[in-house]
Amino acid sequence: MINGLLQLLVFQVLGELTSKMLLPSIPGPVIGLVVLLGSLIALGSIPPRLEQVAQAIVQNLGLLFIPASAGVIMFLPMLKENLGAIIVALLISVSASIAVTGLVLKWFAGDRAEDEHAT
Predict the structure, then answer these.
(1) Which residues of 13-39 are buried (b: 16+ CB within 10 A; e: fewer)?
(2) Contacts of 40 (CB under 8 A, 6+ apart)
(3) Residue 94 and residue 96: Cα distance in Å, rounded?
């Protein structure tokens, strides 16, 4: 298990170093995950120790929401003050996400839809 955790930490450190030195606009953990994905694709399989750690993390994923919940409770007065702005921002972002998703789907499925109607 320690070996698997060490592997994950190595990829995170690689991502952090890459972020600090070459790509400061991309978070280090994101770069580390992309490098990890690339190495797993190159290997063609998931090493058993890494898989064991990944399963343990997934089984306890709910625990990672506790700090976020505590933060919401801690900043509840500020959230109440800005509730209107938060609701407007959520409505706009959800609407934009749905619209962009629909346009991308239409763009990707455009050729197929035209072919189905032609026959």
Answers:
(1) ebbeebbeeeeeeeebeebbeebbeee
(2) 46
(3) 5
Residue pLDDT, tens place only, 88-98: 999 999 999 99
* Residue indicated by tokens 């320690």: 2
Tell me the C-alpha distance between 35 and 24, whole Å. Answer: 16
Question: CA 1 from chain center: how many Å?
Answer: 24
Q: Which amino acid is at 59?
A: Q
CA distance 30 to 18: 10
52: which 2 tokens?
Answer: 């064991």
**Distance (Å, rounded) from C-alpha 18 to C-alpha 53?**
24
Q: What is the largest CA-CA distance in the chain?
A: 61
* 55-105 tens-digit pLDDT: 999 999 888 888 888 888 889 999 999 999 999 999 999 999 999 999 999
